[in-house]
Write a structure and sequence with these properties.
Blueprint (H helix, E strand, L loop, with lengths): L21 E5 L2 H14 L11 H10 L7 H14 L4 E5 H6 L1 H11 L6 H8 L5 H6 L1 H4 L20 H9 L1
Parallel strand pairs: 1-2
Helix pairs in contact: 1-9, 5-6
Length: 171
């Protein structure tokens, strides 16, 4: 068996459809817009970065007038692909991973048919998938395909609910 893993935000129509398995991570839209705003604010403007206040970003994000288009179109295409390829796609929520990373990693291991014991998952896998670990090893996770402004850290907060606070300030 040959394993290849890559992280992408591509649409299903843009990825290989061979006998691959996909893990699609979903997240609360309020947290998505908050996270994406911080991400694009730190990204170099020539590479799709955003310069402006959150209120402007939010309106453009809702309309799909920012880099990478309309978020709801992306979700719709992926959910359609999930519905037509149930055995090829495992949907995992960010919130579920934050609530119980061990449980979600067991689901992923089972889906990928990795035959990992609970002990291996708990002792060897989970520690390397926490935000604490990722922050400490930020250089391993930062995208290499775009330029970022000085002192950008790809792994920011990794919390659930920050978008709600940010959106309440907007209103």
């Amino acid at each position: 068996i040959e394993y290849r893993i890559f992280n992408t935000h591509l649409l299903p129509s843009m990825i290989p459809r061979e006998e691959a398995k996909y893990i699609y991570v979903v997240r609360n839209p309020k947290d998505v817009v908050c996270s994406f705003f911080h991400h694009l604010k730190a990204q170099h403007p020539d590479d799709g970065g955003f310069e402006g206040p959150f209120e402007e970003f939010y309106e453009k994000w809702i309309r799909g007038d920012i880099a990478f288009g309309k978020w709801t179109s992306h979700i719709k295409q992926w959910l359609e692909f999930c519905g037509s390829s149930l055995k090829q796609v495992l949907v995992v929520s960010f919130e579920a991973m934050k609530a119980n990373l061990s449980q979600e990693m067991c689901r992923i291991s089972k889906y990928l048919e990795l035959d990992l014991s609970d002990e291996i998952i708990e002792e060897r896998c989970v520690p390397k998938c926490t935000f604490k670990y990722m922050k400490e090893h930020d250089h391993c996770f930062s995208p290499k395909t775009v330029r970022f402004k000085k002192d950008f850290k790809f792994i920011r907060k990794g919390q659930v609910g920050n978008g709600k606070a940010m959106l309440s300030k907007k209103n």
